[in-house]
Design a protein that fits this description.
Shape: globular
Largest sheet: 8 strands, mixed
Order of helices and strands: EHEHEEHHHHHEHEHEEH
Radius of gyration: 19 Å
Bound molecules: adenosine monophosphate, zinc ion, fe (iii) ion
Strand order of the largest sheet: 7-6-5-4-3-2-1-8
Strand content: 15-25%
Structural class: alpha/beta
Helix content: 40-55%
Number of strands: 8
Distance between the termini: 56 Å
Length: about 300
């Protein structure tokens, strides 16, 4: 048997680090990925690629392939959808403009959430929230943690269930771009756009619209998807000729029973994503060449 057969073929394409709302630093995440014998991992922090460089450096040391990626929020009819961008260029100027916008927007939204909590008799210091987020875009997990620490709630889940979860009294929506805008941003940064955790109820019509906007794939394997949901999503992917991906949505043990390595996909899906990314780079180069010729 060739020695390459011994290489693990497992990949986890959905993870978070301290660069957004995860608990492990990018290097620690890669240590965990090596321990879980993953061949490849994508760092998909919310609205930032800031964790990639550190993760890639550690990955090079430990022999774990690290794919640059991002998880972006977009506004949908019913709340919010998340779109993963794989193989985006972390230095892309337009992507970084969006990252800066999101960071500012998340900060003012955090103030709005604290305002609502205050209105309900639970003053929370912004310092405690900022202290947790550090230089990362502020997410509700940072606020939930501060609420536990200051005794507003007894647990992290309680914070969401009682106050800041979707539709709860202190919930504030984010100002998000449309899915079409997010997909275009990912494409222009050379990336591959994949609908994150669509859930079991993803409809034909909703997916039709996203596919028409250039969506490349959907996430099939995810802790939120039971086997029946995975089957439904695989069938939809086939109908719309979309790529399929999967991962753990690991937040470093923030959520209950989180372990890296439990939600994985075969490495061939990484190869499919890379092929799409390479095609996109060729298309972008051709477009630029065309623009130069016209000028
Ligand atoms: P944000 O992007 O600030 O709206 O925060 C979204 C993050 O909050 C998700 O990625 C989850 O990590 C977490 N989250 C959202 N809803 C819940 C919930 N009901 N229970 C626990 N965590 C949640
Ligand atoms: Zn998160
Ligand atoms: Fe998400
Ligand atoms: Fe996520």
């Amino acid at each position: 048997m060739p020695s390459s057969a011994k290489i693990s073929q497992k990949a986890d394409l959905h993870t978070h680090t301290t660069a957004s709302d995860g608990m492990l630093s990018p290097a620690e995440l890669i240590d965990a990925a090596a321990a879980a014998q993953l061949r490849a991992i994508a760092v998909t922090d919310h609205d930032t690629t800031a964790g990639f460089a550190e993760a890639a450096a550690r990955g090079a040391e430990l022999g774990v392939e690290v794919i640059p990626a991002i998880e972006m929020s977009a506004r949908a009819d019913k709340g919010e959808v998340h779109i993963l961008g794989y193989f985006v260029d972390p230095a892309d100027p337009k992507l970084n403009a969006h990252v800066t916008f999101s960071k500012n927007m998340r900060l003012s939204r955090a103030y709005a959430i604290l305002h609502k909590l205050d209105d309900h008799g639970h003053p929370l210091s912004i310092k405690s929230v900022l202290g947790r987020a550090g230089n990362s875009p502020i997410g509700r997990p940072h606020i939930a943690e501060a609420m536990v620490q200051q005794g507003v709630v007894s647990s992290y889940n309680d914070a969401f269930n009682r106050w800041i979860g979707d539709g709860r009294p202190a919930f504030v929506e984010k100002h998000n771009a449309t899915p079409a805008e997010v997909i275009a941003l990912i494409h222009r940064a050379g990336g591959v756009a994949v609908l994150a955790h669509p859930g079991p109820a993803l409809s034909h019509d909703a997916l039709y619209e996203l596919a028409a906007s250039g969506l490349d794939g959907i996430e099939v394997v995810h802790p939120r998807h039971r086997l029946s949901a995975q089957k439904h999503l695989r069938q939809l992917a086939q109908t719309f000729d979309l790529l399929t991906t999967g991962g753990s949505d690991f937040h470093g043990g923030r959520k209950e029973n989180e372990a890296l390595g439990d939600y994985v996909i075969a490495y061939k899906h990484v190869e499919n994503l890379r092929a799409r990314h390479e095609r996109r780079l060729r298309e972008l180069a051709a477009k630029r060449a065309g623009a130069t010729t016209l000028a």
